[in-house]
Amino acid sequence: DRDVTGVQTCALPISQSGEPGEAEISELQQRWRGGQYRSTQCLTVQPDGTLVLRPQRIRVRGWHRGTVGVLPFALIAIARTFLTTGWIGLLVVAASVAVILLALLGLYEMRIRHGAAMLTATKVIIPTWYGRRRSVPRGAVSRVALVQQQVPRQASPSSQLLLVGGDGTCLLRLATASIPREDVLAFAAALLVPVDVRPEPVEPQQLKREYPGSVPWVVSNPAAAGLVIALVIVIIVVGVVVGLAATGVIQGSSGQPG
Question: How far does CA 183 lie from the centroid of its chain?
């Protein structure tokens, strides 16, 4: 009954409080049951009834102003790299930066093309940021929670979609900051289970207590995560320096033996 195609912008009525209420969610679920919901820019209804939720493409405004501000520092870094390591070292650094940027762009494009979340007749799929497909049976989801996770020292809360099982455990989670709010709600309503909308920010520890498994280790242990990241960066830097020294690109400070 969800074999619907076409492109049409769907505006979701919002309650006076600014957040969707039970009536709006119920209306969306009725439209899903009746096959009346059509694709939008970020929520595609495929011919077989599969829903694909995609993030919006990032449009960076004022990029030229940011480039002008960073350019002097980039030139200084390039000059120091050249003076220290020569042309070979400069090319190695440039190639490493290019590989990292291409990998990040590839992961971003994969998320756009394949979708941030998919809903089929039998399961819900939410790929990880590196492309691994995580899925749970559709029938295992007993409710959906739309929450605002407030991480310490973060300016604004992070919007999250949580798929909750019958025992209250979070089965899958999805960061939805880059996805239009109405499309996130429509995706949640398509599961045809109760949807909890939490407009107030929630601290990670409270969210972890209410929905076990909803907070990743990096967020719940920021100090340890910071140490691990710093250690990885140090290992990479030392590895690059040792590699350059082994190939003779970086010369030792000691003089030639007489």
Answer: 16
Tokens of 253: 């400070």
Closest CA to 185 of 5, 3, 28, 72: 28
| Residues 200, 221, 115: CA angle, nearest 5 degrees | 65
**85-135 pLDDT, tens digit each:** 667 766 777 777 777 777 666 656 655 555 689 999 999 999 876 667 889
Collapsed DSSP state (helix, strand, coil) of residue 56:
coil
Place of tokens 């455990």: 169
Backbone angles phi and psi of 220, in degrees to 5: -75, -15
- The closest alpha carbon to 29, from 195, 198, 163, 196, belongs to 195
Q: How far apart are CA 251 and CA 258, in angstroms?
A: 17
CA angle, corner 254, sides to 253 and 257, nearest 5?
A: 150
Q: Is the pLDDT of residue 34 over 50?
A: yes
Coil/strand/helix, residue 224: helix
Indicate the pTM of the whole model: 0.63
Whether residue 207 contacts residue 216, with contact meaning beta carbons closer than 8 Å, is answered with no
Amino acid at 84: T
Residue 207 CB contacts under 8 Å (≥ 6 apart), including other chains: 147, 149, 214, 215
Mean pLDDT along residues 222-251:
73
Asked if 214 and 202 count as a contact pair (C-beta separation under 8 A), the reply is no
Residue 58 amino acid letter: I
Residue 231 has pLDDT above 70, yes or no: yes
Confidence at 155, pLDDT banded by 50, 70, 90: confident
User: What are the E-state strand segments in 9-142?
Assistant: 43-45, 51-53, 117-119, 123-127, 133-137
Query: What amino acid occupies position 233?
Result: I
